[in-house]
Structures are given as C-alpha cells and as structure tokens.
Design goal:
24 strands; 4-stranded mixed beta sheet; 6-stranded antiparallel beta sheet; alpha+beta; 30% helix; 12 helices; 461 residues; single chain
C-alpha cells in the first residue's frame, strides 16, 4: 500500500508570542533557501519522501539554533489509492449553505431518539449522480444503483425535501453490519504555546522511540508537533458483505466502509467517484502507536417511519415541480466571490485582444465568465477550460470521436472536463452536458451555462 508523508511547518520566536514583521520576512527568506515556497506568514510544506527531506530537517534545526527561532509542525500520513485495497472508507461531503433545514426527532425500535434533517435538495447543486452527501446521506442515484445491482446490506430512508424546486433526492443510509472496533492513534501530539506541553513532548518522544524513526526524528526537531496517522482495522474482525458501519461518537467518527467488489460496481455506475474512496488500512494486530476504539450502533428510525418516508418520496416524485433557473447575473456574482476566496484555482481574466477575437465565435457565451477568469477549477472535480485550452482540447476531442466511428456525434462545444476524463459540452441551445469518457453517452445535463457555473462552484466550496 502506498502512502504520502507530508509536513507543514513554520518558525516561531523562542518566546511565547507571534513573529513581528522583521522576523516573518527573515523566516520566509530562509524557507526560500530550501527550495520551498512560504505562504504570507511563513508556513511551508514539504514531502518527507523527497530525497533531500532529511537535509532540510537538519537545516531547520541549525537555523533555529543560530537565529533564536523554534520550529512548529503538522505531520500527516495519507494512504494513497492503489486499486488494491480490500476495503475503503466512503469520504462524504456536507451539503451547501441552506441544504439542511429543520431537525426532526424520531425514535428507533427501542424508543431512543433519532435526529434526522429535513433538507432543501436543490440548494446542493449536485454536479453528477455520484457520491454521498452529509454525514450519512447518499444520492437517489446511489440508492438506485444498489437496488438494481443487488447490492444488499443497506437500509435507505428518504430525507424529506422541503425545497420548492425539482432536484436530485437524498437518502439516509443504515448499514446492516458494523465494525466492532477500529484502531486510532494514541494521544502523541503536543501543542503550540502551552508550557505544560514540554512534559508532553518528552512523553511523545518515549511513545514513538523505537517504533517510528520518522516521528522520533520529528519530535526531536519540533517544539510543537501535531501528528495525524491513519486509522486501521483488524483483519480478523472484518465483516462479510459489501458495506459496514463504523460509528464512534467520542471522536466524532462517523464513517461507512465499502468492500472493493462493491466499490467497483458503484464506480462503474458513477454512483461514486474515485476521490470519494479512501483506502482502509488493515493490520493483523494493533499498531503500537494506536489504540482500539469501540464502535456503537447508528441510531435508525423505525420501519414504519421508513415506509412513511418512502410513500412521501413517491408522491413527491409524481408531482411536477418547477426547475430552478439560475440567471447569468447570479452566476457571475458567485464566480467573482469564489475567485476572491480561492485565487489559486482561477486564472487571470482574458486579455483584451483574445476577448475581441471570440465575440463572433461559438465561444461568445463564455466571454462574461472569461472576463472574470480565463479558465478555472470550479470544483475539485471540474475544470472550466481557458479559451486557449478549449481550442486545443477541441481538436483532440474531435480526433477521439473520429476514432469511435460514431453514427451520431455530439453537436456541441467542448468547454471543460472532469477529473475522471468526462467532457463538459455547451450545446447550441445553451444547455450544458457531461459526456462520459467511457462510452459516448450524456450522463448529466444542466439547463444553462449559468446553472452549470453555479452548481459546479457549489459542489464542494
């Protein structure tokens, strides 16, 4: 199993205070001498697998001694997808602003309280029929894929939609099986600007000594060190089946596991994407840097309530509800706001000459957006091409379609792409489509370019 070790670090004065302007410039200059890029206050990030990582740690140590600084850091070990994991955590996102509405108190079969949320589904702006939403919700598409492919082991309960517009629906999920225990790291971090943490640093060193050379070295260098190690499961306690619950309240740990065979079906049917899956570590015994946590049963409403919600869902689906139409003014306002908050994901506005050259072309509808950013990552998954890149990619896309020998090719303009290779197309009637990279089919549609822009941004920001 592959993993990535990353260290974010900063230099602090020896005294318990923040750096002044002169000290900030001094430590930023030092970071640059290491070939790293500091942020505005001096934080830097480094890959601990880099060949010069040990040399950088030595230089940090030496600089601190010579210039009266001390170093603070945040260490993270992340498991990287490799396609070979037996189990995966489903990584869930929260709804957008306004998605969750009123809480509803129900009871389980034992009479204990179950808190559920009513939602405003259209305010999520789902980019595609994929992924799970909220702490324990999935899309209706996810549910239908499970039912149509015989993926058992889950109970679904509709989350009542109070929104006035038509939108993809969401369901609470309740796995029938659960992991009884999982291993999480021991309390080996020690924190910034707390004098009592000096003793804890000694305890942390004793805890990692002889168990992790990497952490032993980091504890010796950094006066404050936050440590994040991935959780792991015990092989002889893994359940049968495709899904398993893992709920532990003290740490706010609420995850659902999916077996790789089940995950492959969900991926193929686009009920989830690869970025929704985090490989689960599986050990024969508990790591010496971890301890076991007991899990609990997820509170589940009664069967009668679940059936009641299913009936309400079916009645709602039989109704015709208006589709929310986003105006260009709304889309431009949201794009400006998002660029201001996430500049690194947005290009500069299009140049005057280029803007003038596209006014009489099929790309003219994109000009108002290009005047904000000539290309942008609107979400983690979706890129709006710059004008230049759109022209280049259109040539490649046309060649791909030619190789497919299709009887009917999409009569639309390529304007962007998804991280998984799907294309984003703008049709002549103003609609926007997501065109699958696996087979020549449209898998999602937005009624307008403005709607696409807004829902793309709302996807995960």
């Amino acid at each position: 199993m592959r993993y990535k070790e990353e260290l974010s670090w900063i230099l602090d004065p020896l005294e318990d205070r923040f750096s002044n302007d002169e000290e900030t410039e001094q430590k930023k200059a030092f970071v640059r001498t290491l070939g790293l890029k500091p942020d505005v206050v001096g934080w830097a990030r480094m890959d601990l697998s880099a060949p010069n990582a040990d040399d950088i740690l030595k230089k940090i140590e030496a600089f601190c001694k010579e210039n009266h600084f001390r170093a603070r850091a945040w260490y993270t070990m992340e498991i990287l997808p490799d396609g070979e994991s037996e189990w995966y955590w489903i990584n869930k996102n929260h709804g957008a602003d306004g998605f969750f509405q009123n809480n509803v108190n129900e009871s389980d079969e034992k009479g204990e309280k179950v808190v559920l949320s009513e939602i405003c589904a259209y305010k999520y702006g789902d980019l595609s029929p994929k992924g799970s939403r909220g702490m324990d919700m999935v899309t209706d598409h996810f549910r239908k894929v499970c039912l149509e492919n015989g993926l058992s082991g889950l109970t679904f309960c509709w989350a009542r939609d109070k929104g006035k517009y038509a939108a993809p629906q969401f369901f609470y999920i309740y796995p029938e099986q659960k992991i009884e225990r999982f291993a999480a790291q021991k309390d080996i971090s020690y924190y910034f600007l707390q004098s009592e943490q000096k003793e804890k640093r000694k305890l942390a060193y004793e805890a990692v000594k002889g168990k992790s050379e990497r952490l032993e070295r980091l504890v010796s260098v950094f006066y404050s060190l936050m440590i994040h190690l991935p959780d792991h499961l015990l092989r002889d306690e893994l359940p049968e089946g495709g899904f398993a619950d893992c709920l532990e309240d003290k740490r706010g740990f609420k995850h659902i596991l999916v077996h790789r065979d089940t995950a492959k079906i969900l991926l193929h049917e686009k009920a989830i994407s690869e970025k929704d899956l985090i490989p689960a570590l599986i050990f024969e015994e508990v790591s010496p840097l971890h301890r076991l946590f007991e899990t609990k049963n997820r509170p589940k409403p009664t069967e009668a309530y679940i059936q009641k919600m299913q009936s309400e869902y079916e009645k709602l689906m039989a109704k015709e509800r208006p589709i929310r139409m986003v105006t260009e003014k709304e889309a431009l306002k949201k794009m400006r706001k998002c660029k201001k908050e996430n500049k690194e994901f947005f290009g500069k506005k299009i140049g005057k000459a280029a803007a003038e050259s596209l006014t009489e072309t099929a790309y003219a509808p994109l000009l108002p957006y290009y005047l904000i950013a000539d290309g942008a990552w609107l979400s983690d998954e979706l890129e709006l091409f710059s004008y230049k890149k759109a022209l280049e990619e259109a040539v490649l896309f046309a060649a791909e379609l030619e190789e497919e020998n299709l009887s009917e090719k999409p009569d639309a303009l390529l304007i962007g792409a998804c991280a998984d290779g799907d294309k984003i197309l703008l049709a002549k009637d103003g609609k926007v489509f997501r065109f699958s990279h696996e087979e020549p089919v449209i898998i999602f549609e937005w009624p307008s370019l403005a709607q696409f822009i807004v829902e793309a941004i709302d996807e995960n920001r």
